[in-house]
Amino acid sequence: MLSDRLQADELPHVNMTPMVDVVLCLLVFFIAATRLYDWDENEFVVSVPQVTDASPLTAAPDDLMLTIVRPGLVALGDTTHDLPSLAKILRQSREHFEDQGVVIRGDSALNYQDLADVLSVCDGAGIHNVRLPVRPRGDETTTN
Known about the structure:
- By secondary structure, this protein is an alpha/beta fold.
- The chain has two domains: 2-38, no CATH class; 64-131, Nucleotidyltransferase, domain 5 (2-Layer Sandwich), CATH 3.30.420.270.
- The chain has helices at residues 2-9, 17-38, 83-96, 112-124, and strands at 64-70, 73-76, 79-82, 101-106, 129-131.
- Strands 3-2-1-4-5 form a five-stranded mixed sheet.
- α3 (83-96) crosses α4.
- The longest helix is centred in the N-terminal third of the chain and has 22 residues, at 17-38.
- One of its GO terms (biological process) is protein transport.
């Protein structure tokens, strides 16, 4: 009799909580998944990166040091050139490197027109990275 009473107290019991959790999770998953298929590509405004021409990975060359020797003559390194031959050299240098720089030096006794002629040659060759080194009056130190 005792065993009949223990069996009567232990009726089968099914816990529904895990099954409800799984069904709700599946429901949310399928609702979200079906919404993804309805989206059109044009609904999103995306800015896609563009490819441009790559510049060379080499280091920039040193600036060309131009020294105005006298009107119409410019020294480049150890050689002296007239303005037409200087223009040819600057165009060749510009073809090799687009941002070729130039430093123009000259004696303070030169006319401004002599500097303007060299600047005009640089502009004609397409070189726009031009620097003019200066120093204050009375400073007699030389810079190389």
